[in-house]
Design brief:
With 456 residues, the chain is of the alpha/beta class. The protein is built from 15 helices and 13 strands. The chain has one domain: Amidase signature (AS) enzymes (Alpha-Beta Complex), CATH 3.90.1300. The strands form 2 sheets. Strands 1-3-2-4-6-5-12-13-9-7-8 form an 11-stranded mixed beta sheet, with helices on both faces. A two-stranded antiparallel sheet has the order 10-11. The longest helix has 21 residues.
């Protein structure tokens, strides 16, 4: 096994025991980037020289007995909305062509303090305003979409071009590409991870979180991002056998399995059955206020995004890609009353979800209703004849967690007959990340180890 194939937890153990040097790990990941980047286009910028320098310093610190913790010497890609001092933050847009960050974002500073090694900035759908990341190809099939908007981060992790990565999530932008590329994506509780120094799409919906190979890796990254000194604050369960006998898993009887590809539904139901084998008690639930999800998501996101881009939309509209410019211009047509009604609906939805989550510990459902579609495909037609835009379909099952602010974890649960990854989403109570990670890790321990995506 090459170093770039190691999970974060495995690499951290090798570095701590001095069986692997951070320099060896970083060189392996940089070589992997050179190998796969022409096929997938995950990175905006690769900071190879900087990464090598940081790795050498990490190697010296570890040799002196100054091991900082699990992220020390570990290569990471950061979505190109996240400021890193001295590095451009382009948001994958010509609007930001001349931008260079003056200071670290809070999350970048915390990763730096933990000893992580930045390998580069990863592609996003322009300004995170989309669900496909068209610059980037799916790690499992270059003719299919990567998902978005954190597509570059998910593809880099899936392909072994980063040991872990950070993404942002406004309506599903961590979980959607994680599911479509067969990796783990965690959207934390709203407000748990600081967003200072992160380019905003929609201030009341935005989240920052990790994309990793495993749930255990996600727990390790989350501990660093939250600034908890105790690295076991979000520790996963390491008992000899996974045991979920005290966990109640809510299985939606509505919404989350409506207009879902049969292969996706079957894989998620099989994973839920595995949770029951581990001792969890399954409880059928009704998801509240589902008819308001789409209107509330768009009613919040569109005007907030347009307000953020107000100046550049008026001065350099030609620099935006057409799909993003149209959405931003549409936001100028929304009145204050629409926005206020969306905020009121969010309050009601948050309260209704809190009541449901008093009855169960987690909710288990598909992350997205279908696997990665062909690049350029704009709509999906369901068996009943309903036609849905691809972006609307991908955001439909993930956006409730952004509206309500509850944490949500996407875990791989198999592949379709076409070989494309399928993800299960676990949703929990506000600040209930420990439970989500425990359940996800318990499921993961019953499955074979996942290989990297077979990028040519």
């Amino acid at each position: 096994m090459q170093p770039h194939e190691l999970t974060l937890a495995a690499a951290a153990n090798e570095i701590r025991e001095r069986r692997l040097s951070p320099v060896e790990l970083v060189e392996s990941v940089l070589e992997r980037i050179d190998q796969v980047e022409p096929h997938v286009g995950a990175y905006v910028t690769v900071t190879a020289d900087q990464a090598r320098g940081t790795a050498r310093e990490a190697e010296r610190e570890v040799a002196r007995g100054g091991h900082r913790g699990p992220l020390h010497g570990i290569p990471a890609g950061l979505k190109d909305l996240i400021d890193v001092a001295g590095t451009p933050t382009t948001a994958s847009s010509q609007v930001r062509a001349d931008h260079r960050a003056a200071a670290d974002s809070t999350v970048a500073a915390r990763l730096r303090a933990a000893g992580a090694v930045l390998t580069g900035k990863t592609h996003t759908h322009e300004f995170a305003y989309g669900l496909t990341t068209p610059q980037t190809s799916n790690a499992w099939d270059r003719d299919r979409v990567a998902g978005g908007s954190s597509g570059g981060s998910a593809v880099a992790v899936a392909a072994g071009a980063a040991t872990f990565a950070l993404g942002t999530d406004t309506g599903g932008s961590i979980r959607v590409p994680a599911a479509l590329n067969g990796v783990v994506g965690l959207k934390p509780t709203y407000g748990l991870v600081p967003r200072h120094g992160v380019t905003s799409l929609s201030w009341s919906l935005d989240h920052v979180g990790p994309i990793t190979r495993t749930v255990e890796d996600a727990a390790l990254v989350l501990a660093a991002l939250t600034g908890h000194a105790a690295l076991d604050a979000f520790a996963v369960d390491h008992r000899p056998e996974p045991d979920l006998t005290d966990v109640r898993v809510g299985v939606p009887g509505n919404y989350y399995f409506d207009h879902v590809d049969p292969e996706v539904a079957a894989a998620v139901h099989q994973a839920i059955a595995q949770l029951e084998v581990l001792g969890a008690r399954l409880v059928e639930i009704d998801v509240p206020m589902t008819r308001y999800v789409q209107a509330t998501q768009w009613g919040l996101m569109v005007p907030e995004a347009t307000a953020y881009h107000e100046r550049t939309l008026r001065t350099v509209p030609e620099l935006y890609q057409a799909d993003v410019r149209i959405l931003l211009e549409a936001g100028e047509l929304m009145g204050a009353g629409d926005y206020l009604r969306a905020q009121r609906a969010r309050t009601l939805m948050r309260d209704a979800w809190a009541r449901v989550l008093e009855e169960v510990d987690v909710i288990a459902a598909p992350t997205v209703p279908m696997t990665a579609v062909q690049a350029g495909q704009e709509t999906v037609t369901w068996p009943d004849g309903a036609v849905e835009a691809v972006s609307d379909a991908y955001v439909r099952l993930s956006s409730p967690a952004n509206i309500t602010g509850v944490p949500a974890l996407s875990v791989p649960v198999g592949h379709s007959t076409a070989g494309m990854p399928i993800g299960m989403q676990l949703l929990g109570r506000a600040f209930g990340e420990r439970t989500l990670l425990r359940v996800g890790h318990a499921y993961e321990r019953t499955q074979p180890a996942r290989a990297l995506a077979p990028v040519a």
